[in-house]
């Protein structure tokens, strides 16, 4: 009986671990698709009226045109004339728009050449043995580190600390692995702690 219970439990958990991520992925993609199609609905409706095609084909066409449009604009701004127009447009019009600079900097951080989080660290913000997982976002000439410490399980919110180097311990772990441990509320943190202990023992 105990063997059957164990078999049933492990099989059920195994099935859930396979199905649940797929289910969540489908829900997220469905939500994202719905959000995008709601934004482009006015254009999609116009395409449906003019071409008499189905909604899904119209959505796909509009999305394709948006992607192609972004690609063409990207090519244009690489030219001297395009760069000149874009620079002057930003200086004279867009810079005046409330929040434009912040939005641009945020977008450039995530899709530009600079990744927002350069390295994973463990920090001691209370000057004791309490360790927090964080990400270096900036390093200053005086040796001060700016570190973002995200909250779990939602890493998009958190706290920013400016710390001396003695309160920042580097660990050999990727940003993706650290993010995964935060999203799962600490599950899989063994590698982070092991790397920290190894660094300490080497000193």
UniProtKB/TrEMBL annotation:
<feature type="transmembrane region" description="Helical">
    <location>
        <begin position="12"/>
        <end position="36"/>
    </location>
</feature>
<dbReference type="InterPro" id="IPR007462">
    <property type="entry name" value="COV1-like"/>
</dbReference>
<keyword id="KW-0472">Membrane</keyword>
<dbReference type="Pfam" id="PF04367">
    <property type="entry name" value="DUF502"/>
</dbReference>
<feature type="transmembrane region" description="Helical">
    <location>
        <begin position="56"/>
        <end position="77"/>
    </location>
</feature>
<protein>
    <recommendedName>
        <fullName>DUF502 domain-containing protein</fullName>
    </recommendedName>
</protein>
<keyword id="KW-1133">Transmembrane helix</keyword>
<keyword id="KW-0812">Transmembrane</keyword>
């Amino acid at each position: 009986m105990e063997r059957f219970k164990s078999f049933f439990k492990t099989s059920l958990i195994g099935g859930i671990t396979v199905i649940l991520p797929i289910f969540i992925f489908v829900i997220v993609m469905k939500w994202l698709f719905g959000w995008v199609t709601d934004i482009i609905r006015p254009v999609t409706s116009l395409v449906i009226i003019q071409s008499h095609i189905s909604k899904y084909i119209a959505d796909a066409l509009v999305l394709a045109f948006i992607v192609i449009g972004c690609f063409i604009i990207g090519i244009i701004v690489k030219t001297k004339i395009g760069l000149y127009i874009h620079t002057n447009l930003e200086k004279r019009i867009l810079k005046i728009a409330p929040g434009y600079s912040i939005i641009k900097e945020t977008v450039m951080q995530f899709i530009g050449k600079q990744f927002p989080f350069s390295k994973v660290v463990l920090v001691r913000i209370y000057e004791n043995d309490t360790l927090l997982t964080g990400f270096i976002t900036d390093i200053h000439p005086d040796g001060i580190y700016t570190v973002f410490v995200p909250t779990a399980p939602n890493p998009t919110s958190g706290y920013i600390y400016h710390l001396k180097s003695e309160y920042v311990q580097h660990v050999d772990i990727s940003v993706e692995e650290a993010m995964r441990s935060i999203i799962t509320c600490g599950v899989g943190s063994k590698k982070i702690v092991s790397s920290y202990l190894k660094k300490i023992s080497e000193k």
